[in-house]
């Protein structure tokens, strides 16, 4: 077993984002206006981009992908207490050619 590497949350986030921007240099995020109700907030978002680099080890240049989702947040005492993100990542992986699905 090799030596385990240690990462901070910030360094992991940077690695993740760098990987996404390498795969989709034209990646675009759009957000709706937030819906706010007391200590809760939610918004819908959409992501789109064209594959240029490797994505989960697979490179299918020129493939256009899109994904949409929603984010729900709860705040307590001015701080983020809960976050939930809903999206269909499997559909994005299938479109990108990463996830193969057998016909039924």
Structure write-up:
By secondary structure, this protein is of the alpha+beta class. The protein has a single domain, classed as Nuclear Transport Factor 2, Chain: A. It has two helices and five strands; from the N terminus they run αβββββα. Strands 1, 2, 3, 4 and 5 form a five-stranded antiparallel sheet that branches. A hairpin with a 2-residue loop joins β2 and β3. The protein is globular.
Q: Tell me the Rg in angstroms.
A: 17 Å
Helix content: 10-25%
How many structural domains can be distinguished in the coordinates? 1
Overall pLDDT score = 88
- Label the overall shape: globular
- Main sheet summary: 5 strands, antiparallel
CATH fold title: Nuclear Transport Factor 2, Chain: A
Quick structural overview:
Helices cover 21% and strands 38% of the residues. The protein has helices at 9-23, 89-95; strands spanning 28-31, 35-37, 40-50, 64-76, 79-87. The relative contact order is 0.15.
